[in-house]
Design a protein that fits this description.
Layout lengths: L1 H5 L3 E8 L5 E11 L6 E11 L10 E6 L7 E10 L3
Parallel strand pairs: 3-5
Antiparallel strand pairs: 1-2, 1-4, 2-3, 4-5
Length: 86
């Protein structure tokens, strides 16, 4: 069971919304190099993550882990809070 959990994706991102009950919206940033010009391009996407105890707040840097589908849009869960917002 532990080996299966280790193969799940883990991402870091900032909480952009915590207005829902037991759910947070996390903005994930991906950096990639443009194939022709070589410029580093930032692309962001927002995912919903399960926060069982409502402990994360807007601006927190969090670690989220992939999980089974919890609802229509939730496929991630809060793993830990890395840094609190100031």
């Amino acid at each position: 069971m532990a080996e299966e959990r280790n193969s799940r994706k883990v991402r870091r991102g900032y909480v952009v919304s915590d207005k829902m009950d037991k759910t947070i919206s996390v903005e994930l940033e991906q950096r990639s190099t443009h194939p022709l010009y070589g410029k580093v391009v930032r692309t962001t996407r927002t995912v919903k993550a399960h926060d069982e105890n409502n402990e994360a707040h807007v601006g927190d840097l969090v670690s989220i882990m992939e999980t089974r589908p919890l609802s229509k849009t939730k496929r991630w869960r809060l793993e830990s809070i890395i840094e609190r917002a100031k």
